[in-house]
Amino acid sequence: MFSRHFSNSMASPKKKLQGLVAATITPMTEHGLDQIVIHVGALSLKESQELAQHAAEIGADGIAVIAPFFLKPWNKDVLISFLKEVAAAAPALPFYYYHIPALTGVKIRAEELLDGIQDKIPSFQGLKFSDTDLLDFGQCVDQNRQRQFAFLFGVDEKIFASDQQLLSALVMGATGAVGSTYNYLGKKTKQMLEAFERKDFSSALNHQFCIQRFINFVVKLGFGVSQTKAIMTLVSGIPMGPPRLPLQKASREFTDNAEAKLKSLDFLSCTDLKDGNTDACS
Asked: Which of 104, 119, 172, 274 lies 20 to 30 Å from 44, alpha-carbon distance?
């Protein structure tokens, strides 16, 4: 939300996905997103390459790739070889690695991966770091100070066994953030970023704690993608619809409790849904 838009293309059939990306990239640009980075990671190298080529053809500003997670790369060199082949399919586009070991099971440290990566992948421009290992993240920043890499922090939910850590990452040198909770906690997160930029660290910390209170609350209720859709409906007033199987829709109890908490923290700018109910998502 605050630096790049990642369009996740990994889980859908290729042709359907390409049509979806092509149909959305122009209006996204027209509505003020200055840079659109499309995720083209897939289990198949060939598919990733084709998606990368498609992203270049439709005018994306960059591509991002997750590590393949069925047949996993077992060391840094193998992973870089995979990423290099994808990047070569769209050599003019800035290339970003999406580091999310909790979901891929690929435990290669980002610090290790970045060592000499531009020698192998000249278009490499940065990293989306979705892990709670701030030592690894800090070393990524520290050891690459002379390079203009983007370090986008991606831990904003407790699915990674951690409350939101963005403020900690900013202190360590994060240049931006990508996360699902920014869709409904964006205003408060923006206030935190503004306080940090003016060096009002006390206010920034208070905003961070406020965000964490809400995330911690919904985690205890049971929190995931389905519940995120329910919260988005509450905040926007736009019914987001149910999730696709195997996910199950959020319970009415979750929705009611989340709505009450949003109101108590003054996060809910739209108190009444446009259609008067949350049945579309709960």
From this structure: 119
Residues 9, 12, 17: CA angle, nearest 5 degrees: 65
> What pTM was computed for the model?
0.78
State the residue for tokens 């949003």.
262
Give the tens place of pLDDT for each residue, 28-77. 555 556 778 899 999 999 999 999 999 999 889 999 999 999 989 999 99
The pLDDT value recorded for residue 14 is 58
- 95 Rama class: left (phi>0) / alpha (psi -120 to 50) / beta: beta
Phi, psi of 94 (to 5 degrees): -55, 140
Q: What is the mean pLDDT of residues 207-228?
A: 88
d(CA 169, CA 177): 9
- Tracing tokens 């990524």 back to the chain, one arrives at 140
Catalytic residues: 98, 128
Helix (H) or strand (E) holding 229: helix 225-236
Residues 6+ apart with CB under 8 A from 174: 129, 137, 141, 151, 152, 153, 166
Residues forming beta bridges with residue 99, ordered by sequence position: 129
CA separation for the pair 41, 97 (Å, rounded): 9
Q: Residue 110 and residue 139: Cα distance in Å, rounded?
A: 9
Strand pairing class (5-8; 36-39):
parallel
Structure confidence at residue 5 (pLDDT)? 46
Kindly report whether the peptide bond that precedes residue 246 is cis, defined as omega within 30 degrees of 0: yes
pLDDT band at 185 (very low <50, low <70, confident <90, very high): confident
